[in-house]
């Protein structure tokens, strides 16, 4: 069988450290092209991995006939233009999170994917963790009963990324859109993806551009020209059509404990927490906590394997364009609620 030929759009950190290594592990995929605004970066990556084409624009990459599918790994402000151009050129799309800068862009991406009948998958990486898959299986089995409440989040004490992430015009937002997206999406997925109906939230920019010593942070490949005009923490509450609700707390910087990503779901029969992994149940009338014995897996390899399998089978990815749009509605609902100081009703 012919290999699936991949184009990488945006040759920065996540492309070089996660997407490219994960594709290289798959025997049925081959990276044939790479593009970056910085052509030298694209050329360097191409030379390192023996990739045939290195180009400096999205338009040039999607015009390459040999490309069957792309990974969109640019700053957030180019996700929509890259995904739509790729879809219109008939290429399948794996898009890094967040889907887009706003709901309008996300809906246009979904529409382009449907119109061109391509596979569109969201890079909701945390769904592809081995431990997440166990929680999902247990939640879907009904063992937790009705899931009526959940807590999601990720608090970093000092973990503001360096580079474009803090520049609203490139990122679309701060920790809500950067790491909140992971925690909220994962928890919503565990809950069985109920339809969100409203969001209430506050965002803060109280710590800002700190100079704390002795701590490390995620760095975009370019860390010059720094702008800081996003929030650095947020909290809020999401209500769903089925009566369930989710509270969330996220920060890049806050004067409290680092939590890592967390997701706690509460059901009528039992509860489940991702971090640390625990099922809070009952056995023989006793409260009983349990956790599985599972080996860690390469999450990005799982994600990219699923993308390739969906291309081969035509099956809808488990992180679909529709899921991306719904999560985008929640993310932008959070920002709208914080700005307007009121609950936002989602359609
Ligand atoms: N799934 C995860 O856990 C995870 C982790 C980190 C980052 N990300 C996401 O990956 C994306 C990239 O983040 P990063 O940390 O690699 O950033 P980065 O700055 O290191 O890399 C982005 C690259 O895209 C290039 N680029 C920007 N706009 C472009 C355009 N219009 N055309 C071509 N190239 C363009 C930049 O020059 C840069 O080389 C972001 O959307 C981010 O949210 C996801």
| Helical/strand content category | alpha/beta
* General form: globular
Distance from first to last alpha carbon? 44 Å
Major β-sheet strand ordering: 14-13-12-11-7-10-9-8-15
CATH class of the largest domain: Alpha Beta
CATH superfamily of the largest domain: Dihydrodipicolinate Reductase, domain 2
- List the ions, cofactors and other small molecules found in this model: nicotinamide-adenine-dinucleotide
Order of helices and strands: EHEHEHEHEHEHEHHEEEEEEEHHE
Mean pLDDT across every amino acid position = 97
- Sheet of most strands: 9 strands, mixed
Please tell me how large the radius of gyration is. Answer: 20 Å
Q: How many helices does DSSP assign?
A: 10
Strand runs, count: 15
Q: pLDDT under 50 segments (min length 5)? A: none
- Tell me the count of domains: 2
- Residues in helices, as a percent range: 25-40%
- CATH topology-level name of the largest domain: Dihydrodipicolinate Reductase, domain 2
CATH architecture of the largest domain: 2-Layer Sandwich
Q: What fraction of the residues are assigned to beta strands by DSSP? A: 25-35%
In short:
This protein is α/β, with parallel strands linked by helices and 347 residues long. The longest helix has 20 residues.
Report what the structure shows.
Strand 9 and strand 10 form a beta hairpin. The chain has 10 helices and 15 strands. The chain folds into 2 domains: 115 residues, NAD(P)-binding Rossmann-like Domain (Rossmann fold, 3-Layer(aba) Sandwich), CATH 3.40.50.720; 191 residues, Dihydrodipicolinate Reductase, domain 2, CATH 3.30.360.10. By secondary structure, it is of the alpha/beta class. Bound molecules: nicotinamide-adenine-dinucleotide. The site of nicotinamide-adenine-dinucleotide has 27 residues, from helix 1.
């Amino acid at each position: 069988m012919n290999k699936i030929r991949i184009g990488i759009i945006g040759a920065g950190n996540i492309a070089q450290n996660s997407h490219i290594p994960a594709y290289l592990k798959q025997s049925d995929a081959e990276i044939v092209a790479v593009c970056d605004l910085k052509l030298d970066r694209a050329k360097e990556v191409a030379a390192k991995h023996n990739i045939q084409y290195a180009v400096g624009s999205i338009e040039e990459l999607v015009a390459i006939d040999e490309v069957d599918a792309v990974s969109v790994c640019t700053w957030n402000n180019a996700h929509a233009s890259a995904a739509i151009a790729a879809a219109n050129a008939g290429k399948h799309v794996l898009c890094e999170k967040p889907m887009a800068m706003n709901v309008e862009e996300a809906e246009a991406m979904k529409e382009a994917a449907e119109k061109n009948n391509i596979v569109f998958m969201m890079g909701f990486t945390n769904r592809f963790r081995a431990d997440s898959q166990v929680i999902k299986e247990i939640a879907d089995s009904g063992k937790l009963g009705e899931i009526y409440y959940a807590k999601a989040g990720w608090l970093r004490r000092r973990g503001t990324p360096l580079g474009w992430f803090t520049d609203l015009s490139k990122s679309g937002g701060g920790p809500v859109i950067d790491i909140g997206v992971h925690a909220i999406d994962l928890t919503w997925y565990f809950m069985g993806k109920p339809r969100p109906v409203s969001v209430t939230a506050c965002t803060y920019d109280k710590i800002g551009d700190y100079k704390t010593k002795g701590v490390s942070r995620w760095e975009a490949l370019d860390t010059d020209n720094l702008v800081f005009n996003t929030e650095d923490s947020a909290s809020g509450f999401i209500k769903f059509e089925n009566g369930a609700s989710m509270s969330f707390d996220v920060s890049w910087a806050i004067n409290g404990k680092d939590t890592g990503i967390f997701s706690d779901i509460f059901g009528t029969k039992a509860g489940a927490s991702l971090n640390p992994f625990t099922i809070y149940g009952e056995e023989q009338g006793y409260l009983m906590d349990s956790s599985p014995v599972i080996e860690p897996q390469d999450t990005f390899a799982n994600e990219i394997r699923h993308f390739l399998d969906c291309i081969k089978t035509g099956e809808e990815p488990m992180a679909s364009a529709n899921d991306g749009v719904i999560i985008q509605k929640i993310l932008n609902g959070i920002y709208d609620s914080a700005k307007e100081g009121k609950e936002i009703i989602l359609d």
